[in-house]
Specification:
alpha+beta; five-stranded antiparallel beta sheet; 4 helices; 5 strands; elongated
């Protein structure tokens, strides 16, 4: 693994990495996170009784839109033509009072889509917070992380903490 900082040139100036010489490959990234809320808040979301509408569907759309705009949001991120965006949200079905969020992003390109997946999860969580803050200001967004990436010269990555990935 190359540990050099690629966003700086030899003089320490910020730069966007040149990916022009890289081979185009199928690149996939999966990120996950969650937002913890009070059980009453989760019940309102599940029953679609929030005044602002269907929280999970709006958050899904927000995550998709955010993935598409990652290159505009993160200064040194390349704008990418994404070929697939999937954002899934689910209220935990055990004793955890949270909504689980997962994003899978794909492209055929010269650079990875990790930032797009992480951005999709982050913005989906922020959207849930925005739509529910009138009834629960103590929600906590957390554990946003890359769990898998494939493609490219650096090879595949699967987080050590993940056991349920295909």
């Amino acid at each position: 693994m190359n540990n050099s900082l690629t966003h700086f040139d030899e003089k320490g100036n910020t730069r966007m990495v040149d990916v022009g010489g890289k081979e185009e490959t199928l690149r996939i990234a999966i990120a996950r996170g969650h937002i913890t809320a009070r059980p009453e808040t989760l019940r309102l979301i599940a029953e679609q009784k929030m005044k602002k509408g269907d929280v999970l569907e709006v958050a899904r759309l927000a995550g998709i839109m955010a993935a598409k705009r990652t290159g505009e949001l993160i200064p040194l991120c390349h704008p990418l033509a994404l070929t697939s965006i999937r954002v899934e949200l689910a209220i935990a079905d055990d004793d955890r009072p949270e909504i689980e969020i997962e994003a899978e992003i794909q492209t055929i390109g010269r650079t990875g889509v990790e930032m797009e997946a992480l951005t999709a999860v982050s913005v989906a969580a922020l959207t849930i917070y925005d739509m529910c803050k009138a009834v629960d200001r103590e929600m906590v967004i957390g554990d946003i992380r890359l769990v898998k990436k494939t493609g490219g010269k650096s090879g595949d990555f699967i987080s050590d903490s993940e056991t349920q990935l295909p």
